[in-house]
Amino acid sequence: MTNQNVVVAEAGGLTKSGINMAITVAMAESALLPPPGLTKQAGSYIAISRRKLLKNLETGGGGARINAWVESMRASSPTHIKSVPSLSSPDDSSWILHHPSALRMFEQIMSASKGKQIVMFLDYDGTLSPIVEDPDRAFMSDAMRKAVRDVARYFPTAIVSGRCRDKVYSFVQLAELYYAGSHGMDIKGPAKGPKYKKTKKSVLFQPASEFLPMIDEVYKFLVEKTKSIPGAMVENNKFCVSVHFRCVDEERWSGLAEQVRSVLKEYPKLRLSQGRMVLEIRPTIKWDKGKALEFLLESLGYANCNNVLPVYIGDDRTDEDAFKVLRERGQGFGILVSKNPKDTNASYSLQEPAEVMDFLHRLVEWKRLSIRGRSRV
């Protein structure tokens, strides 16, 4: 095992690919762990229409763009959850065939990890903590924190979130983890642990530092603009801004989208993306959760290794960037947390944070048993 922490300075400029980094991310080639019966066309329940909607967000103008935003907001709304097939419905048999439960397929997953170092990547909201009405109260349970701490004892572990890195750290409170906040635009390595004590070094990478003044400015404008919309909440996540609409009446969504658009049209270097009940404003650099995953694997010394198995668990559309990277690498797998069929690049599924915790418990127990088995030989 060749784990090692590295120091990477904050980046001010951008290369042609949008990344000014000291490490070149290489693509490793290994065997992908395919779920049973997977095909390229699998799992396209609602995403084709959503892709078109999201394309309209970038190319449409005026009312057409606002309508596209509202339709996309509706597609992710819990108030419309009944219109989407449930995983308990007989209509979802095709989807669950292509994205089987990671708990049910646990033994197969572990078989694929033989001789490889597992590296864990975990989203926060909706994965380690339930989605709640007030984002500031998305607290992590003590039981989940213990499960994550136990996982980190045996496997390099990173939290990859759209949240500000400091905010997600205040929820998780585990200094031995890697944290990638603002959709991976703010990465920092462990502040304690055996590896840290040996190296006295930490990972630090912030590829969008030059956007900080702009993000602060947009945040202030959005706070002012959305004051007239009850339930709207604007969150400054340092390298991105989140406009939460989970507490906004649906008839006000169009007005909220118009307010966001009126601010964004003055900032062509920022772009809009969408997560679960949230509009995200981010810099237009080529950086996302997938790039963060690659960067962290490189930082750990696994860029060109066949003996690593990255596992990424997430529930949000922004996690798809990481799922896609794992598919393209042909190495590791993604696990989507969802009670409903969704178009996804993930290989497996779990229904809710409680099942995520069960999966983490089983992973730790599997590791402990394997260690005991080797000690008896």
| Helix-strand string | HHHHEHEHEEHEHEEHEEHEHEEH
Spatially, the strands of the biggest sheet line up as 5-4-3-2-1-10-11-12
Find the count of extended strands (DSSP E, 2+ residues). 12
Largest sheet data: 8 strands, mixed
| Shape field | globular
Radius of gyration: 20 Å
Instruction: Give the termini distance in whole angstroms.
Output: 21 Å
Mean pLDDT across the residues is: 80
Enumerate how many helices there are, as a single number. Answer: 12
Oligomer: single chain
* Unreliable runs: 1-60, 80-85, 196-200
Characterization of this structure:
α2 packs across α9 and α5 (142-154) runs parallel beside α12. With 377 residues, the protein is an alpha/beta fold. Residues 1-60, 80-85 and 196-200 have low confidence and may be disordered. α6 links the parallel β2 (157-160) and β3. The strands form 2 sheets. An 8-stranded mixed sheet has the order 5-4-3-2-1-10-11-12, with helices on both faces. The chain has a 4-stranded antiparallel sheet with strand order 6-7-9-8. 37% of the residues lie in helices and 14% in strands. The chain has 12 helices and 12 strands. The protein is globular. The protein has helices spanning 47-59, 62-75, 93-98, 106-112, 142-154, 165-172, 194-199, 212-225, 253-264, 289-299, 320-329, 353-376; strands at 117-122, 157-160, 178-181, 186-188, 204-205, 233-236, 241-244, 270-275, 278-283, 308-314, 333-337, 348-350.
List the helices and strands and how they pair.
Blueprint: H1 47-59, H2 62-75, H3 93-98, H4 106-112, E1 117-122, H5 142-154, E2 157-160, H6 165-172, E3 178-181, E4 186-188, H7 194-199, E5 204-205, H8 212-225, E6 233-236, E7 241-244, H9 253-264, E8 270-275, E9 278-283, H10 289-299, E10 308-314, H11 320-329, E11 333-337, E12 348-350, H12 353-376
Parallel strand pairs: 1-2, 1-10, 2-3, 10-11, 11-12
Antiparallel strand pairs: 3-4, 4-5, 6-7, 7-9, 8-9
Helix pairs in contact: 1-2, 2-9, 5-12, 8-9, 10-11
